[in-house]
Amino acid sequence: MAKPGKRKTEADAADQAAKDDLLAEYNARRDFTKTLEPAGKAGRAGSRVFMVQKHDATRLHYDLRLEKDGVLKSWAVTKGPSLDPDDKRLAVQTEDHPLSYATFEGTIPKGEYGGGTVMLWDRGTWAPIKGKSADDLEDGHLHFILDGERVKGEWLLVRMKRRPSEKRDNWLLRKLDDEYSGSSEGLTGKYLTSVDSGRTMDEIAEGKRAGRTGSNRSGGKKPRSGGRKPGADGPLPRHQPPQLATLADTVPPGDDWLHEMKYDGYRALVAAAGDEVRVFTRNGKDWSEKFPGLVDAVKAADLGTALLDGELVVLDADGRPSFQALQQALDGSASGEAIVYYAFDLLTEGRRDLKTLPNIERKARLAALLPGNSPVLRYSDHVLGRGEALFDAMCEKGLEGVVSKRADAPYRNARTKNWLKVKCIRRQDFVIVGWSRSTAKGRPFASLLLGQYDGDRLVYRGKVGTGWTMDAMEALSAKMRPLERKTPPLDVPKGAAKGVVWLTPKLVAEIAFAELTAEGVTRHASFLGLRADKDAKDAGVETPVAAAAVAEDAAKPAEAVKISSADRIVFPDAGITKGELADYVRRAAPLMLPWAARRPISLVRCPQGRQKKCFFQKHDSGSFGEHVLAVPIVEKEGEKQDYLYVEDAAGLLQCVQMGTIEFHGWGAPVDDVERPDRLVIDLDPDEGLAFEDVKAAALEIRDHLKDTGLVSFPMLTGGKGVHVIAPLHPQADWTKVKDFASRFARAIASAEPERFTATMSKAKRKGRIFIDWLRNQRGSTAILPYSPRARSGASVAVPIAWNELKDHDSGADFTIKDFDKLQRRAGSAAMQGWGEAEQTLPEL
């Protein structure tokens, strides 16, 4: 009779043999004397790891691999994963791979099975959604969650019925709609380098060593290039008083406001300088030790030197911020609560103070800086306009409300009306000034007495007698005991002081209530929690302002710009007047300013309309008005000249008042004009070439830039061409950027001289597309996104997604009459992250 231990050994051996048998096909297809791929042997089941490997074999595809039963179940996804729930990507099931394949990156020799380059493109863990099982794969339907460095959220794999001619099962891979949904190109178009080594496909194929000095941001790792040292690029930023929002009665109307979810948590500023990270409360208390997970997440994100503004929250089981859960996490009464930090502003980056930039540009820089894959460090998204719809959605879901912010406003270290908070229910901060005794056995108190500061005077606001658990009452009682005093700290109505134990006013509580009575006391009050992040003086009287009046006042600087001769026809063929042009620029200002604000600009002025004399102007003549500013720049001859720039909508409108139609910008901001933050390749076709030729050329330029490790974005110029724009971390100087652009353009023109030229000469452009790299030299400009063009029909330069390019018949498909459509597009999933990538200039 076999012994139990022996039976177990035999069972384990049989189980291992069964697992190894799953890899028989994998092993049979490979000659391990020729390929560096690992030999197939099953590993330990249950690790639930997943990875995506970018594989350039017969054709480029992405291999999705999920661990099940100690092997990697594998699918070849032809176009790679898409964040768009409407995209159904073909996923061809391939043979199971060993767990050791999870770290493979390199080349498979030509002639061998799968010969080509393999990049470890993403990695992480996966799990079936709650109530489902990994065994659902056998039934041809898997609903699962990915938690990778790049790919996250809910996904669906569905097996299709196999046709007689098909040797393998075909599946469909689809992203489900959740907080990680986005555009078709939000993954494969954004991440071009290895999540492990930082190398491009070309560098892997060439056998270059890992740890490249390359470009594209990968999996939260900050790129390194040139002389920039890893880690901090400036001293640790100091705490600053945060900008505070004013309570408003309704959401402000208009296109000039962006709207964010109001988080139910603690305000915090996060300062980073390499591996040195501090978490500050709004009042400057260092709470870094309370949030080790956040500190670690910021270190892992490698932000360089930065100061972030945001909110600390704990999410409940439904993914909603819970103030009570945050309280429990901070006082230790709930274990395992995960603190999440939603960043919504960027005050400094490197040694640069960003507070003077428009809010919408600060947010664009913040979105590009954050890794986008951290469960702890998250970007707070927004909508532009349409705030009422967001507010209704927040209230319907039982959330706190929204914060509305002027899109073009700078950051102020004070409470302003450029930020408005609109709450679904009334909630304010109060000071606890005393407690009343309870007649119920075991209850430490019956109710709390509340006050608020009206200036320096503490005013009585009534009582609150509900909203706490017994544990919370005990904890609160322990905090109140040391503050007990004999006299009231404020004037109390007659009868309200009976049986009260008074307290020194130090504890701040957040209270929900129905309304304030005529006497100024709360009705139907409920205790939500203590505010350990606030001082008593912060609990001031808040009276809602009229949002419509605030919006009207906030718009006055732009509205005050008088547009003379508004009836003058500027575009005769379209019948568009100067007033209509000004109205477009006013409404489009939030879209234009992230690209136009605080950047030297050149203007195309046509005082008598586009069909009359037009001219460029880049120097300040002193005639534009107070909102058009000047920055002194040293020119080639060594002399300083004042160059024009704007900061807000009023500046743009003053330019229109002076006859401006087009806005062209430098590739660098006024704060550091010697370091470009973008590379622009302008595709300028010869007369007679079809726009189809331009589109094909743009896609080739994109692919060639990808090969160097640069993510790029297309823009219809409003004319006959397309701009291909690659954002850059402002590190390399003009000489290096110009040299890169020149050699890049000339290499393409040399490879296909019948299609391209890199020479400006008109004679050499015959039948070709000019790859205009000259936009990337100091002093040169390029048309700015959403700028009108002085062309027939009043066309506009418009950013688009790469997968939209095929749908356009001209570079001038949009006009100033299409503003509503442009605004909707700007907030769509397809345009999420347009023009944003943390990448440095690679070597070429």
From TrEMBL:
GO MF annotation terms: ATP binding; DNA binding; DNA ligase (ATP) activity; DNA-directed DNA polymerase activity; exonuclease activity; metal ion binding
Swiss-Prot/TrEMBL GO biological process terms: DNA recombination; DNA repair
Domain annotation ATP-dependent DNA ligase family profile: ranges: 254-423
Residue ranges of every copy of the DNA ligase D polymerase domain listed in the record: 577-823
Protein origin, superkingdom: Bacteria
EC numbers for this chain: 6.5.1.1
Domain DNA ligase ATP-dependent C-terminal: 442-534
One Pfam family hit: LigD_N
Enzyme class: ligase
InterPro entries: DNA_ligase_ATP-dep_C (IPR012309), DNA_ligase_ATP-dep_cent (IPR012310), LigD_ligase_dom (IPR014146), LigD_PE_domain (IPR014144), LigD_pol_dom (IPR014145), NA-bd_OB-fold (IPR012340), NHEJ_ligase_prk (IPR014143), NHEJ_LigD (IPR052171)
Signal peptide: none
Start and end residues of each stretch annotated as Disordered: 205-251
Co-factor requirement: Mn(2+)
Keywords annotated in UniProt: ATP-binding, DNA damage, DNA recombination, DNA repair, DNA-binding, DNA-directed DNA polymerase, Exonuclease, Hydrolase, Ligase, Manganese, Metal-binding, Multifunctional enzyme, Nuclease, Nucleotide-binding, Nucleotidyltransferase, Transferase
Keyword Manganese: yes
Reactions mediated catalytically: ATP + (deoxyribonucleotide)n-3'-hydroxyl + 5'-phospho-(deoxyribonucleotide)m = (deoxyribonucleotide)n+m + AMP + diphosphate
Coiled-coil portions: none
All copies of domain DNA ligase D 3'-phosphoesterase, residue ranges: 53-159
The name this protein goes by in its record: DNA ligase (ATP)
Species this chain originates from: Pacificimonas flava
